[in-house]
Amino acid sequence: MQTTIKSRIITAIMQALASIPTPQNRIKTVRPNNDYTVQGTTSLPELMVIQGPEAEQARDAIGQTYQFDVHVKIWVPHPAPPTPRADYQYEDIAASVIQALEDPNLLSGLATLVLVA
């Protein structure tokens, strides 16, 4: 079966993010999901890749241009207040996600990636 461009993009993103879990950041898993409200399933941090629907942006004689959103959710469980929230901020994990997605070889000309937070 032939794979779609969208599935090749998602596969490349999943492979890039698979290198992020380390013993230091304790990320248990990187998994796909299609629910924007998804929550983690373990007591350890997780990365969840959420893909949105496609929308046609342009069409001409040689083809179409589509856009779809991909959200990477960083799930970090934390105790209830009054525990200070600053104790559960993981800038290093966020930086690793950004670095993995900014790799110039990630999509090898297959698509254009725009990062926003």
Shape: elongated
What's the number of structural domains? 1
**How many H/I helical runs?**
2
Q: Mean pLDDT, rounded to whole units?
A: 86
Q: What gap, in angstroms, lies between the N and C termini? A: 35 Å
Number of strands: 3
Radius of gyration: 16 Å
**Which residues form runs of ≥5 with pLDDT under 50?**
none
* Helix-and-strand structural type: alpha+beta
Taken in chain order, the helices and strands follow as: HEEEH
- Major sheet: arrangement of strands: 1-2-3
Major sheet description: 3 strands, mixed
Q: Helical percent range?
A: 10-25%
Please state roughly what percent of the residues sit in beta strands, choosing from under 5%, 5-15%, 15-25%, 25-35%, 35-45% or over 45%: 25-35%
Structural notes for this entry:
The protein has 117 residues and is of the alpha+beta class. The chain has one domain (5-101). Helices cover 21% and strands 28% of the residues. It has a three-stranded mixed beta sheet. The protein is elongated and about 60 Å long.
